[in-house]
Amino acid sequence: IYRAMAKALPDRVIAGSGGTPATMNVFYGKRNNGNPWHTVIIRGGGMGAGAANDGNYTYIFPANGANTPVEILESDTPLLVEKRELIADSGGPGKTKGGLGRRIEFKIPTGDDAPLPPVNLGIQSGRFRYPPEGLFGGRSGASARFLVNGEPGNPYGLTRLNPGDVITMDAAGGGGYGEPGERDPELVREDVADGYVGIENAREQYGVVIDPETLKIDSEETEKQRSSEEII
Question: Do 44 and 23 meet the contact criterion of CB atoms below 8 Å apart?
């Protein structure tokens, strides 16, 4: 709908978002004492950028939902959350940048705390094949990924897991808005300093050359880079 309205209302739309369609994970199985357990997790992705603002990071949009805190999930289920972090360079480059996607890593514990196998996982999600697209020259955000023990899993069917298995869920980043070469170089520098954009991507996608030691902008090289045709 936003893409259809973009030309008529360019200042009131956003690029594609990584949490659309809604992303939901359903885990269930039996505890080591034989009692059943079940949990549903709603996960957000990077919001698409708009005309005036970068996309928000890992937002549940357009659904009305909330993330489950790690402490609640681990106290209510036999799952462990090994990692929950933003994914650098996952937001689509643009004059305004798409929101970053998020990685969450679950582990099925072993030993006395291990649930009885299998642990079942059903996924309702998208953006595995088609990443969130940018608008008005903005680039697409990074695609979603689903890994089991570091190997691509099947997000469209039921996954059966065993103790010791590690599941990685990467939510997609949002699409960018406007040409990346028009982004304020200082904003690019801030993204690099915060770890949201890598130095190489700052150069290749935004045409901003940053000293890796001082994290200062090389204005002369930036001007050369932006005036060339090397920006991807």
Answer: yes
